[in-house]
User: Fold this.
Amino acid sequence: MRPILTVLAFAVASLAAAGTVAVAPFQDAGSQLGVVVADRTAQLLEADADLVVGPAAADALVPPFAFQDGFLTPAALLGDGGRTTPHGAALLRAALGVDVAATGTVRRDADGLVLEVHVASDGERDTVLLHAPADAPALLATRAARLLARSADLPVDARALTPAAAIAMDGPDAALAEGVRLVGAGLAGELAGLVERQGEDGVGPRLAALAAANDAVRNGVPWPRDPAVAATIAVTALQDDARTLAYLEAAADAGLPAAHVWRAAIAEEGGDLAVADDAWAAAEAYPYGAAAAVAQRLSEDAADATDLAALAIDDDPAVALLVGVSGDAVRDDALQRRAFTALGAQLPTFAFPFERLSFLAFDRDDAAAAAAALEVAVDLDPESSLYWTNLGWARYLLGRYDASEAASERATQIDPDAFIANYNLGLVRARFGRLADAMPAYEAALTRDPEVDDEALADVENALEAVPEEGALWYVLGRLYEAEGRRSEAADAYARALTLGELGAPYDARAEDRRTALSAPPPPVEISGERIDVALGGRLLDGPLRPGDPLTLEFELYTPGDALPARADVHATLEGEDGDVLVERDVTVEIPENAIGYVVQEAALDVPRDLTAGRYVLAVEVRAYEDLTVTARRAVEVMGAPSPLRQLIGRGVILTSLAGERPLYDADDVDAEAAVVDRLVAALRGAVTAAEETLPVVESGPFEGLSGGALFEASDAGDVRTFLAWLADAEADDVRLTFVDAYAQWALDGAPEAGTD
Assistant:
């Protein structure tokens, strides 16, 4: 995948040249038939449309806009299945800037095949059911093409449109579906392997065309037969900005406004500001392009909320979506409300704007507005536990307690792990003295997240201000205080619950037991053997430490009493022999209920990279109860130079083989850097042929002028060590990277050394 843009996802805009059509992959549960039907549909339109963006390219070419420190594309906020909806089609059309866009789903019923196709055109959104016999899926494509031809006002007699070629999913069309998926996912490089596996008789003309397009783009050959596919392969697979921009320019010239946004973003990222300015100027000819240009200026502090507000919020759903999301960056709640209100009106089947309106309403303490937005959201997405949870809370704030309980209960039915919904459910029941109904909900919440939610605790305290004589709420407060380790406050809350009357069995007895136990001195807590183990990447270390080592401190807490506390606060330090604290870290540890022993592995410290050789002390101080702390100390020796490999292992950064499956090192290699470096050099040598075929010539740095294969052939152990040091300096955590890909990108970026930006 092309690494220059961090694309997360979004979409919608307006018209471009007459007769431009986008057909997204049609979905089909358990099969790839929908993808082939979509591809056939796009094929049938190619002769008469100015441009057809088929299923291999439609989703991938939705252009990004600048957002926070990266980029976002409209599809990201559509949610599961959101692309095959009326609003998915509308966003696709607007973001690409085409005349007509279609999404859909193929399903089977007793009468055969049904294609539910959603068509978005200028100001119109239609959902149409098309039927075909089970043994004639190509007929769905023919009928979909006729529908789209009419919607795009193409100069063709739709009734005489050429029938689609037959579809045989037990033959070449299965491979075609996979090929379409590979191109759209940025994996066009795997097309050659797919074609080879099919054999001479298993490759149909469409898969052959995709493979030919891939070969042309990688060799820098123009591909006017399908400029959208060529642009997709360039954007997602090429490492050469100049060639990528050329294919995007060809797509723009063919009638795809979205290509201008891609050109502008890539040129901007590559520092070619003249090209970027020209591309932004061209992109501004359609609404989403104009909005993306403002988002780019906003990221550079060259635009503000006034520029966002001037965009076509009320006329274009893609613009409304961009403005609504970007409005958070300028802290303009009114602008966000206006944008999301407009988006909800334009796309009434899209739950996301109502979700955002509810959050904005909660922020301004407007429970009525939040509830109104969430009532729409749960109607649009009735299986969202988030929407039901938040609706339950909005209703609680409005005093609609029965309705609140019903919404929270629905959330827990959808998702038993929805612990916030359980908190809300327990609260509304406890408020009315229904302790036997409330406590299972609270216990479910604590089981799924042992750390007491601060807001849930505050909700109980607030409820007690309204109904201070409700014993059930005092009992709940005692239980939550106890879970937090606040022994004396919990004992007082249980005592208060007992004074207010009958709690009902078994809660009367339990309140008395807990009050007595929590009023007594806490059971002792000790660190087993006062011993601290030191681990790196899960491997215990016996020898000296190195500067820069990311360490995990491990020790066992135990009690000779009934149970350890539910949580403990750990303060870990690295000290000089004179007691000066050099590094410190605090962490709260959640301990399983009723445990008498628990091995703490959550305490971590990084040895400073500039620490001089010598003897030091690792120490932990554990605050187990309000007034009970225990400590342990361990002398350690630091010597030698920082080890990038040890730093990567300690942070969970794993480099894998080209297939992405086999790690090239693990925690047992912490003291075997030379062997690992040799292993990595061997991996480069094994990928020389692939690098020669896919990588451009290096343009800067110590490898300047080398082709991909020459780069991998020339790289030695010293180069690999420089790469590892640079990667360790980036301080990434818990990530798997394909080594040869990461190394290639590092080399193409000029092979920067550690300590450089």
About this structure: Residues 1-18 have pLDDT under 50 and may be disordered.
